[in-house]
Amino acid sequence: MEERQALMSFAALSQETRLHIVRMLVIAGPSGMAAGAVAEKAEVSASNVSFHLKELERAGLINQQREARSIIYTANYEGLGRLIRFLMEDCCAGHPQICAPAVEVAACCAPAPKENLQ
After folding, report:
1. What are phi and psi for residue 72, nearest 5 degrees?
2. In angstroms, rounded to a whole number, what is the distance separating the alpha carbons of residues 28 and 69?
3. What whole-number percentage of the chain has pLDDT above 90?
4. Are 32 and 25 in contact, with CB atoms under 8 Å apart?
């Protein structure tokens, strides 16, 4: 992840409602949540949640997918993992055992390895 993208992600997460939304979507898992459910659970209006969802998507922290009449939002686990790995990139001045637990957490968000198709 480039520094510019990391800054966009941190800026998006620095707002209380957006941080709350990302945490809700992480908990919701791959099935995600409809925009209306996000607004209800975050206790904000539909127009307000729409603004926050747009910012989080622009920052690469969430994804959206249309299902019938609903738009379902999910956490972008790969994007969140890249952000964690960005923070841990130069971990512990050459002593990786110090931050090994955090690296393990970041690894859970790593993209699945691509199979060799040759």
Report:
1. -100, 130
2. 20
3. 65
4. yes
Tell me the C-alpha distance between 93 and 76, whole Å.
29
Decide: 91 and 99 in contact? Cβ < 8 Å. Answer: yes
- Per this entry, what is the length of the chain? 118
d(CA 6, CA 14): 12
DSSP 2: -
- Burial of residue 19 (CB within 10 Å: 0-12, 13-18, 19+) is middle
Is the pTM above the cut of 0.85? no
Position 71: which residue type? I
- Give the pair of three-digit tokens for residue 58: 């622009």
Per-residue model confidence as pLDDT tens digits over 37-81: 999 999 999 999 999 999 999 999 999 999 999 999 999 999 998
Report how far residue 64's alpha carbon sits from residue 57's, in angstroms, rounded to the nearest whole number: 8
